[in-house]
Amino acid sequence: MNELKDFLIEQYGAELGAFRAALESIPAEGFNTATVGHSPAWHALHVAEWLRLAVLNDRSPSYAHLGWEDREWVGALSGEPAQTESAGKAVILAHLDEMTGRVLSFLQGLSAADMQGTSFSPSAPGGTRPRLQGIGMHLRHIAYHRGQVQLGKKVLT
Fold first, then answer.
1. How many domains, the chain?
2. Which residues form the DinB-like domain (predicted)?
3. 84-97 pLDDT tens trace
4. Is 0.85 topped by the overall pTM?
5. Which of 28, 53, 110, 152 is the most exposed place for a label (fewest CB within 10 A)?
């Protein structure tokens, strides 16, 4: 039994579940409405893209919602995203669900040695961080965007 891995899976599952619940509570007609800087659709796609980049280490040129588009390193990653904000609430949530499943499976497959490795983190000096630090930071990043979605609901109502 790997208690640390179990903890990470539990925490990612809980936070992504809470994030999805916040998104689900947004009416479909307001899902593409930018309130606090971005629309709930953008927040969902942003988190899904960062799950792919920061946790799954997918560096394919298929990102459009990283939120750092003014940074040089984003250029190599920019391309046609899997989904766009206009895809509709159900499609975007299904995409987020797919990324959630992939991340939880990835975490399940990590060995103790893998957890001690590094992961891509473009804002860190040298572009990498210790994996546990990076995925912990990303977990807090999801919580931040959940708060943005909740704050945006107050503007919509």
1. 1
2. 17-149
3. 999 999 999 999 99
4. yes
5. 28
